[in-house]
Amino acid sequence: MMKTQWMVRTASRLSALVLACALTACAVSPQHPGLQAAQVAGQLAPLLPVRAFVANTERTGGFVMSPDGERLLWSQTVGLDSGLAVRAVKANAPVTAYPVGNQGRRGGYYNWLPNSRHFVFSKDDQGDENIRLFVQDADQGTLSPWVLTPAQGVRSFVVGMGAEGSARFFVASNQRDRASFDLHEADAGSRTLREVARNNGLVLHWLIDTQGQLAGRVRQLARPDGSDSVVELLQPDGQWRVLQTVGGFDSFWVLRIDNTARRVWALSNLGRDKTALVELNLDSGEQRVLAEHERVDLGQVLFEGRQGGPAGYVVEPGYPQVHHLNPATGQEVQAVAAQALKQGLLTADPISIVPRNGSTDGRRILLRSQSDFDTAELLWDRQTGSVQRLNSQFKELAEILSPTVPFEFNASDGRKIAGYLIRPRGVQGATPMVVEIHGGPWARDNWLPAAHNSRQLLVNRGYAVLQVNYRGSSGYGRAHLEAADRQTNGRVQQDIAEAVQWAVDQGVADPKRLAVLGGSFGGFSVLAQLAQKPHNYRCGVNVVGVANWPRVMENWPPFWRNRHYFTRTYGDVSKANERADMLRNSPVSYLDQIQAPLLVIHGANDIRVLRQDSDDVVNALRQRGQPVNYLVFPNEGHAISKWRNRLAMWREIEDFFADCLGGQSAGFDYYQLMPR
């Protein structure tokens, strides 16, 4: 109902907008004194339209090398929508574009099959997380995929690839039982799908080895809360052998099984605070640590090809750091970076340069280089020594956008809190600031180069953007994660508030022009911050935010198996006293304390946080006469991913913040006229 009202409101203004904007561009000048002074001095960055940040304009990236090293697959704009594209490796080869459309909340999955002819991709059309899989023959110039998982209401995903050179790969699907995922082997050549292993209701993950065979599984122990599990390896006689028992709150994530080398590599925090890279010898049972970091968990692990062991790893205590286990490899990669810089393929020395994937024979390697204002995807031919850039280069970004800078401070209880800060260009002194709160809470914000994204949209409008990896965030060790237990409405919110105060004390943020924005758990935190009022927030934006914790716990998807994490963090919904505490700590219980204007956004098909949470927030605030705007997108879920919807959302956010913070607005964007 609210969506209809908003659409009518928009439509009623459209004719006037078109005429007015043709003459004035409907831009709103800054009202904040610091921004006004910068504008008069001609120091503000050029005001870019919203479409430049959220629509599929000139988008190219995510290159994947075929195993034979002869073809490239990547994501790009096709028409006005998302698509995939293929070309031969040689420079200036013709491109075949496939209009697959929006793939879903996180951009979808795509990859080559071992035969280097077919590729598989995923789609989540409506945001309901019922992911479907498709296989396309790259020798065909038009999109005519094999619909691998046609059933509606079924979630499927790729587990691993088959043997080298084959058209086989492995798929997990909950078609038989919505709470469990059986393992299937797909063959793109014959377009057949057969069951390989049936889930007994306790298998969490299936593990495929480097030879393209089922090699292991992660099985949940039959505990009521599902807290413990075991990693098991498949034996030649068909029996399963326990490799590692894992406590419910421990982490032992298997990265690769190589039965030829008789080795398993995993990221593990067993018996330690920070996650480390470990190697297990399958013959001797010996386990040794290959890499660790004293301040943060290891993140990405780099492998040399499909058959090799670990080649390096990435950690992110602030800026990302790439470490190569073989120093000679690191020197080789740095030499490639120097060559690319000399050729003008890079705009600056890389902050990080990471090998992404490559051909099976190791001749051709794809690398991603990142600096403050550039993400470059490079194709390196180790045989010829040539380097070519695959994605577009936007040298003007350094003149328009702003760098992301890490920060850290000590919270009032002594815990170190880290995060990232982006400041608007050309502005002296304190500016309006948007606190962008990540979800999870078991997630984290990462350093990113300046690019056309929503954070830089806010900065372009004159706002500083603060991101906080509060306690409960992942990436900083077990103790940092567990420090949020039963504190999501307490110390977690205090961490966020203290980070804001740090920004005020640094002269970055104007304490009279603060706003909060977040999604999921971040949306919950928006409501908590506005209610607790640790600062004089002028407004907030809540995207798919939690408002009722018992409802989330009682309505989660049947395939989720991490109830013990929720119970430890929030409480046990099955116990009356703890359920009452959860409800007391839910925003629906303290909405009467929110007075600042609020914008609420939700996808109608959200399975993680039901739309009812946002409905309850909006209805309660409107009954009290509080200012609240509401956008509901009928074809989205736990994120707003389709560019037309994102354009509508960010145009609303842009005007909303201009009203309450005094920043700029580019106004009506003619892309809003594009058919939906």
How would you describe this protein?
The chain is α+β, with helices and mostly antiparallel strands and 676 residues long. The chain has four domains: 2-54 and 397-548 and 586-671, Alpha/Beta hydrolase fold, catalytic domain (Rossmann fold, 3-Layer(aba) Sandwich), CATH 3.40.50.1820; 60-201, Prolyl oligopeptidase, N-terminal domain (Methylamine Dehydrogenase, Chain H, 7 Propeller); 204-315, 6 Propeller (Neuraminidase); 326-391. Helices cover 22% and strands 31% of the residues. It is built from 14 helices and 35 strands. The chain has an eight-stranded mixed sheet, sandwiched between helices. A four-stranded antiparallel sheet has the order 1-2-3-4, with no helix packed on it. Strand 13 (203-208) and strand 14 (214-220) form a beta hairpin. It is globular. The relative contact order is 0.11.
